[in-house]
Model the fold of this input.
Amino acid sequence: MTDLRGLAFGLPRQLWLVEIGIFVNMLGYGAVVPFEIIYLHDGRGFSLGLAGVAVGAITGVAVLTAPMAGPLIDRFGARAAVAWGAIALAAGYAGLGLAAEPWTVLAAAAVAGAGNGVLGPGQSALIAALASREVRHRAAAVSRVATNAGFGVGGAVGGLVAVLGLTGFVALFLANAATYLVYAALLIAVVPASARAEPVTRGYRVVLRDRAFLHLVGINVAMIAVGWSVFSWLLPVYASGGLHIGAQLIGMLVTANAVTVVLVQVPVARLVEGRRRTLMIILAGMVFAGACLIVVGAGLNLFGPFTFAALVVASIAVAIGECLHTSVLMPLVADLAAVELRGRYMAAMGLSWWVGLAAGPVLGTPLLARSPLLAFGAAAVLAGLAGVAASTLERRLPAEVRLTPRPVAEGVPADA
Done:
């Protein structure tokens, strides 16, 4: 029995089934994301402007619906919120796959965006509820591995199907919709309902009075803006136009990042056990800053013929920083929140992710146009400041949540 528990990483069976559902879901999503604009423009013949607005709406509407997800989770339970979000995403992506008119494209994108805003925080709350406090960081790590592995495999499969043209694109969008439905069905089948008899009345007022949590939200916006947004959108543009690196090699940077997350996330989850959570965030900020400085060095031609190799090192470093940050972030949020307010806390933190992701292209692109070295230098400073802010967060945290727990026994909490 002990050996089986070791293989299970201390996580309950229900949670493993949810993680499998996340992997299946991300297979479909990963197959679609690289081709959303290409499909709408080349496959359906819509203008690039309309295609961009539609894809942007998937994110933009999510920003609006994320705060609404909190009360839904707290009132009806995380399982219901995730299932509703998945069904909305299924409807949205099926609509995009079959859309023939501009208004249907925008309507379908809005529905998918609404689902996006609910599914993210709902999923975080669900994982926190299904895992005992001692293994929440492990559950978060496995979720991240499932997400990255599914996304990577899905992207590869999507590339093979997309060569079929419009037929292939439609198949990808409908298959993605199907994976959301499979995910929702799995949740309904294996996770018990957890609706509350009475709605929570204190709402977001409690969240806004939690200074430690708001401090953490501010740090997260900066960390996401640099570690995720800058390296997802600005680095490929600069590598192509400024460093004259080909598209195939740029794809390898993305692959290096994803593979590193899959290989490193679980060992990092073990590494953080018994250690200060703020220290892990500080280290993540320093790693992000170092990766940005490597890009600055590449722009100054400090690496000569090894410029691409340096960018690979930067991409791997960013992945390690991501693993450090995500291993402590959501478990810390779950510990700060009262059970009846967990949905609102997760929704507020989820909103900070969307803000951070938007900040990279919105603020970074003008800096990149003016001076790539200024853009990545500023990103390094921002990551460093986030690390400094994490050091001041320590004294605001309750003593009992400052360390990542060391698992002592396997179990499922009563609030699942």
In short: The chain has a mean pLDDT of 89. The domain at 205-401 is CATH 1.20.1250.20 (Growth Hormone; Chain: A;). The chain has 15 helices and no strands. The two ends are 23 Å apart (CA to CA).
